[in-house]
Design brief:
CATH superfamily of the largest domain in chain B: Bira Bifunctional Protein, Domain 2
Distance between the termini of chain A: 90 Å
CATH superfamily of the largest domain in chain A: Bira Bifunctional Protein, Domain 2
Number of domains of chain B: 2
Oligomer: heterodimer
CATH topology of the largest domain in chain B: BirA Bifunctional Protein, domain 2
Radius of gyration of chain A: 42 Å
Radius of gyration of chain B: 42 Å
CATH architecture of the largest domain in chain B: 2-Layer Sandwich
CATH class of the largest domain in chain A: Alpha Beta
């Protein structure tokens, strides 16, 4: 909300600067987001009177205005259609710099010299209107600096953020009350004196409120004989500085009073009100209504309407109707000032997707006692600005007055909650500064009754907050709480995830964090590990790309890859640990499973100068141009499982439809498929706009923790030397590495310590469809040094077994 | 003969002093101590001497032989060492060239910031609690004193799955879930992802929070101040000033927003702090007695406080990241930079 400092000062005495007041308010809970000086950059802009108007000799749309500046005259070229002799207008002399930054200089316009110009409101940032020159009230003195002639122009605007509990602060007077309380000053409300006609409003109008539950109070006043026209400059400026647009004098008054005291008002053209009556009740089922913005709306159930004898004329507390709007010919105005029930307005506004200055305030609660005053204030201002006479009396339907309940406040409790040591007198004085009525002679306890505009003070703790605000949060001491220390097991899971991350980091993988929502297509594409193929759909997604909860982290990582590749970062190793979501039948909440996903693409080795010398490392000859392949991603997974202490892991060919059928595996831990790994199907890669091959994996994290948390038991370190023998065989391609290992271990010889594949070869000297595998078998005994003979015996048994079982041919 | 022997010793010692390479040492040794060496020959000639002289000269010759053997050994070690040192002095690498690095990944900066915060709060006495991202309206709103038609719902634009199921807009629901299961004292922090329907330079539809809750007898607003002051001083530095100003959250009363002195300009005013010298970093307050009603805590007996910190916000301030979206674009140049 924008608050004019000049306007604020009408209701509370202020010695401080705008910046100081901004600080006072902010530290009191009314956050001032910005303080802006306005109307100060009008140094060489003067008031001037138009004395003569003549045609421009060479341009039809321009005219020459001879203007008086009191002691001198100037003639300027003017293009505005609305200039008239006798008007007082703003004149920017050469050297003036307008708020837009435009510097005024004397220049020739179509052959006529123009020393300066007459300005529109927009050019001076005194309004939105750019259609013609700004015209001041006739009594304004010409020849003065604008800010001298109209001191209201030089001002500060505070941009104030009001929290939803403080509807009472949504007005200039509301802010003035806060300033008063925080600076310990009184505040005041403008005095209203209405010259009423002898005729009583009751003779011309009646009001019925059948749905009083949604409208506790309804006040109306009638003004007759008004003449609709523009508002004077000062009113327009106030509205403009409040962020509103002037419309016409009568409508402007309703907005002005709204801004002044926070009470939304509505002005009806009295002539349009059929049967001369107002009925406040719920809409008919499926009723349609055209609001004054020209939109036809289907009213939701329980929407409160303002009706005349025949039809709805306004959507209560939200927007008026097109059928009873003030127009240029309006002569009699019925002013509505009501207190509508907060939640009713909110429900209807929400259902219709509307939010107006009025509904915003009603939702947050208006002052039921201020309702009556606001009607008077509006009637008074209308008769002042639009002429006409105010009919005697008000119609005021307020069958069940809203009473603020007294609240018991204990000084001891105030200090208990705040950690302060305030006295009862201090507590009482802080509450009183907020117009809270305080009673009570007890040494600790008082009764505090909030003023009518405070809906938020219902409990002792609400009062405690008020005490704290006025006392100042900065004055509350600083202490630290005591607690009994104890072992803490709440971090176990968190620490395990950190461990997973540490292991991935150590393997050169960089962590990404991607959105938990993805497009529906992406969720379906990689839904492989989930038990059901359904996804959880948002009712109101930001976009189709973020429409459902993810079922896999791969779409996110692919997107990250795509982005990075587009910036030519093509060697990537990425991982993410995050949740995937699966709907559960007959449950409101989905399953949330933690998944670790990884992606690797590009070069296997980093760009290092050392490798350019043809060095050999443990993996064989280094070919710098090699890209990562299946065994890189598998190695990453194996290392991770090793780090987590997961021993029982099996890799079986995967059927995931998005993976290369020959280069992919499912990860089975303790008999359960907990993940997959492999090369992304080339067609998928292309679909995602990528060229390089991509290795991916995804693993449920929880089963790894379960499998990895088995207690380890010490195994004595062998004290006798081991013996290693190599075994080189040629087998059919279909005989897997695992099969051979399993066969060997099935032999059950306790001296076989390990079997490691150290070479795999296809090609020359190996028949088509076969491959050569070389194993290094380590023999080891815990209690003796093995003899060549016993090792040779087992080694031969292994060779015989492989020949028998898988047709292996020994290579020498 | 004795003189001859003594001369041989002196000459040999002098020769040894001039030897500089291994080969020369070996040659000299052979020349003196070898099978046909000078000293060996001399010893062999002793057998021709009369016994009385033989014994005395024999003893002298053996002493000298032992001395020279030791000297040859010593000089051999020395020339070898010198030779090695000379060789090493030639074998030079450019120590400024990069080494063969192990490939090292990195945790996402937001997780590192969260981890730092979690550790600070752990030291201050907080345990850890987590909960679901997809949450019941009841836990996300109702039980936090945000009824369906309350304008406070406007403070957080929410993603819905149905009338009753939302993406949590804060991690506060975890607090209620913990309080449902556990009697006071409760001291927890709840880190996690949260979601609001908003996207611009300072808002991401998904972001991360750490919320904290402390419930016990005799916990006051002064304690809240103490814990948060300790956190800010620990995380941003002991010299960083902070201020508490009244605000509104439906689940706390009194509520306080906490600002820290601008870490960019030190409080003198800059673009980051909109010239105020202050940066908002968290919301907090004393638990509203209303939320105890939902978990059956006695509000007279138990007081407490809660706070919520946006991790991105803290990271943006700590590292000077101007756009929140940077965190979720996952450009590796960013991921490996901080």
């Amino acid at each position: 909300m924008l608050v004019s400092f000049n306007w604020l000062k009408e209701f509370v005495e202020i010695d401080q600067s705008p910046a100081q007041i901004a600080d006072v308010l902010t530290m009191g809970g009314i956050e001032v987001e910005a303080v802006t000086r306005v109307g100060d950059s009008l140094d060489r802009v003067y008031t001037a009177r138009i004395e003569e108007i003549s045609a421009h000799p060479s341009a039809e749309t321009l005219s020459l205005a001879r203007i008086s500046l009191g002691d001198r005259m100037e003639t300027v070229v003017c293009g505005a259609p609305n200039i008239r002799i006798g008007q007082i207008v703003p004149y920017a002399a050469p050297g003036a710099v307008l708020p837009s930054g435009l510097e005024i200089s004397e220049r020739s316009i179509k052959g006529v010299r123009s020393p300066g110009m007459i300005c529109s409101a927009k050019e001076l940032d005194l309004g939105d209107d750019a259609s013609g020159v700004l015209v001041f009230e006739p009594g304004t003195k010409p020849g003065l600096l604008l800010t001298e002639a109209l001191p209201i122009i030089d001002d500060w605007v505070l941009d104030v953020g009001i929290t939803p509990n403080r509807g009472d602060c949504l007005s200039i007077i509301g802010i003035a009350r806060e300033v008063a309380a925080l600076t310990n000053r009184p505040w005041r409300r403008p005095h209203v004196r209405i010259a009423e006609s002898s005729q009583h409003i009751g003779d011309k109008m009646s009001i019925e409120v059948p749905d009083v539950d949604l409208c506790p109070r309804y006040v109306a006043r009638l003004v007759e004989g008004v003449k609709i026209g523009p508002s004077p400059f000062t009113v327009c400026l106030r509205l403009y500085r409040s962020g509103m647009r002037p419309i016409s004098n009568v409508v402007d008054v309703t907005n002005l009073v709204l801004m002044e005291c926070g009470q939304p008002l509505h002005a009806f053209d009295y002539e349009f009100l059929q049967d001369r009556k107002i009925v406040v009740r719920r809409a008919d089922p499926d009723e349609d209504f055209v609001t004054l913005d020209g939109q036809e709306r289907k009213l939701p159930p329980n929407a409160l309407t303002i009706r005349d004898g025949k039809r709805a004329v306004a959507l209560a507390g939200i927007m008026g109707g097109l059928n009873s709007e003030i127009h240029d010919g309006t002569e009699a105005v019925l002013i509505e000032s009501a207190c509508f029930e907060r939640f009713g307005i909110r429900r209807t506004a929400k259902a219709l997707g509307m939010s107006t200055e009025a509904s915003y305030r009603f939702e947050r609660g208006v002052d039921p006692e201020g309702t009556f005053w606001a009607a008077d204030r509006a009637a008074d201002l209308i008769s002042e600005l639009a002429g006409g006479t105010v009919l005697a009396g008000s119609l005021d339907v307020y069958p069940n007055p809203i009473v603020r309940s007294p609240v018991t406040v204990r000084t001891s409790r105030v200090n208990h909650v705040l950690g302060t040591s305030l006295t009862k007198d201090e507590v009482v004085s802080y509450l009183r500064r907020l117009s809270i009525h305080v009673d009570g002679s007890d040494s600790d306890m008082v009764t505090a009754t909030p003023p009518s505009w405070r809906w938020d003070l219902e409990r002792e703790v609400d009062m405690i907050e008020e005490v704290a605000r006025i006392y100042g949060f900065q004055n509350i001491p600083i202490t630290t709480p005591r607690y009994r220390s104890a072992p803490d097991h709440t971090r176990v899971n968190h620490n395990r995830i950190s461990k997973v991350a540490d292991l991935m980091n150590a393997g050169g993988y960089v962590e990404a964090v991607t959105m938990s929502f993805v497009s529906r297509e992406a969720a379906r594409e990689f839904c492989y590990l989930a038990e059901t193929a359904e996804e959880l759909e948002l009712l109101n997604p930001l976009s189709e790309d973020l429409a459902v909860m993810r079922t896999s982290l791969i779409p996110g990582l692919l997107q990250v890859m795509k982005r990075n590749v587009s910036f030519r970062s093509t060697n990537l190793r990425l991982y993410e640990v995050g949740k995937v979501f699966t709907p559960v039948p007959d449950e409101e909440l989905p399953r949330e499973d933690l998944i670790l996903a990884g992606l690797a693409t590009g070069r296997r080795y980093p760009e290092l100068w050392h490798f350019n010398r043809g060095e050999i490392n443990t993996r064989g000859a280094v070919d710098l141009t090699r890209d990562v392949d299946f065994y890189d991603i598998k190695g990453a997974v194996e290392t991770l499982l090793d780090g987590l202490g997961v021993k029982d892991a099996v890799y079986v060919p995967s059927k995931a439809p998005f993976l290369h059928p020959g280069k992919s595996a499912d990860l089975v831990v303790e008999g359960r498929t907990v993940g997959y790994l492999g090369e992304l199907l080339p067609a998928k890669t292309r679909e995602h706009g990528l060229e390089a091959t991509v290795q991916i994996f995804e693993i449920f994290v929880e089963p790894l923790f379960v499998a990895g948390c088995k207690e380890s038991v010490f195994k004595p370190i062998p004290r006798y030397p081991y013996v290693e023998r190599d075994l080189s065989i040629i087998v059919e391609e279909k005989v897997s590495g695992d099969t051979i290992k399993q066969l060997i271990s099935r032999l059950g010889h306790d001296i076989i310590d390990s079997v490691i594949l150290f070479d795999l070869y296809r090609g020359e000297s190996i028949p088509e469809g076969f491959r050569s595998l070389a194993f290094r078998i380590r023999y080891q005994s815990e209690d003796r040094t093995l003899t060549d003979a016993e090792v040779q015996e087992v080694h031969s048994q292994i060779a015989e077994l492989l020949t028998r079982e898988v047709g292996a041919a020994m290579r020498e | 003969m004795e003189d001859q022997l003594r001369n041989l010793r002196t000459e040999t010692l002098s020769l040894i002093g001039r030897l500089t390479d291994e080969k020369a040492v070996e040659e000299a040794r052979v020349k003196v101590l070898g099978r046909k060496g000078d000293l060996t020959q001399f010893l062999r000639g002793l057998k021709d001497l009369p016994p009385d002289r033989r014994a005395a000269l024999g003893q002298l010759a053996n002493t000298i032989k032992a001395e020279l053997e030791e000297e040859f050994d010593r000089i051999l070690v020395e020339v070898r060492r010198n030779a090695e040192m000379r060789a090493l002095a030639e074998d030079v690498v450019d120590v400024t060239l990069p080494g063969r690095r192990m490939m090292l990944g990195r945790r996402h900066i937001l997780h590192r910031v969260a981890q730092d915060m979690i550790e600070i709060f752990r030291d201050l006495g907080f345990q850890l609690a987590e909960g679901p991202d997809v949450e019941l309206d009841y836990y996300n709103f109702e039980a936090l004193n945000i009824p369906r038609d309350h304008p406070a719902r406007d403070m957080q634009d929410t993603f819905y799955f149905s009338d009753n199921v939302v993406l949590r807009t804060h991690t506060s629901p975890v607090e209620t879930r913990v309080m449902e299961k556990q009697r006071p004292p409760v001291r927890i922090i709840c880190p996690g992802k949260v979601y609001r329907r908003d996207a611009d330079m300072t808002h991401s539809p998904m972001f991360m929070q750490v919320e904290g809750l402390w419930v016990d007898e005799g916990i006051s607003f002064a304690d809240l101040k103490g814990v948060l002051v300790a956190f800010v001083h620990e995380y941003f530095g002991a010299g960083v000033d902070l201020r508490f100003r009244p605000s509104f959250f439906p689940f706390t009363e009194p509520s306080a927003e906490v600002d820290i002195q601008c870490v960019i300009c030190g409080g003198s005013g800059c673009r980051t702090c909109s010239n105020t010298g202050w940066l908002e970093i968290l919301g907090s307050g004393m638990n509203d007695p209303e939320i105890y009603r939902f978990v059956d805590y006695d509000p007279e007996r138990y007081t407490g406080f809660a706070f919520g910190i946006g991790i991105e916000r803290v990271a943006m301030l700590k590292y000077g990241v101007p756009d929140i979206r940077t965190f979720y674009e996952n450009d590796v140049r960013f991921l490996t930079q901080l």
